[in-house]
Design brief:
The protein is an alpha+beta fold and about 170 residues long. The chain contains 4 helices and 5 strands. A 5-stranded mixed sheet has the order 1-2-3-4-5, with helices on both faces. Strand 2 and strand 3 form a beta hairpin. The relative contact order is 0.15.
């Protein structure tokens, strides 16, 4: 892997139109990908997401721009602060990790996740959590290399499973 050294990383400013356009474009691209469900973002989400994110202090995002391509937005990580009752401390869930296809395998996600970890530490978080699809083996390899592992308390009880129920 040859890491891109021309990246500019930042915590997204949800009131900055350039940041929000980058976030929406990257998130829409991810949503259209099979790993994101293969459906574009709804018009409702595109219209309301900037204000919805800005209204939630427990949300933060990291953006990556490639300076060699006129500041092209190439990466996004959306995060949600939660709370660990066992540790009585915040935790940060990495909710979306997006890297443009042209920039995959070049260290973009690794650099963004390093900034996410730094921001999580400033929030006093005890851990980072994330979900990854079983078929996304390249992402799994990255996450394991960065220190993530499957969640379990007692090996005899097995690993936790991520579940959902639509409302």
């Amino acid at each position: 892997m040859t890491a891109i050294t021309s990246l500019t990383l930042c915590q997204a400013d949800y009131t900055n139109p350039q940041h929000m356009q980058a976030l929406l474009d990257l998130l829409d691209g991810y949503a259209r990908d099979p790993m994101g469900g293969a459906e574009p973002l709804s018009d409702f989400a595109k219209t309301n997401l900037p204000q919805a994110l800005a209204a939630r202090a427990y949300m933060f995002s990291v953006l990556a721009f490639d300076a060699t391509v006129a500041g092209l937005p190439v990466g996004l990580v959306n995060c949600v602060e939660g709370f660990s009752t066992f540790a009585c401390q915040p935790l940060v869930n990495v909710h979306d990790v997006v890297v443009l296809a042209s920039h995959r395998g070049k260290g973009v996600a690794e650099q963004m996740l390093a900034l996410v970890e730094q921001l999580a530490r400033t929030r006093g978080a005890c851990k980072l959590t994330l979900e990854v699809l079983a078929g996304n083996t390249s992402a799994q390899k990255l996450y394991r290399r960065l220190g993530f592992d499957n969640y379990q308390l007692d090996p005899a009880m097995g690993q936790a499973q991520f579940m959902q129920k639509w409302l």
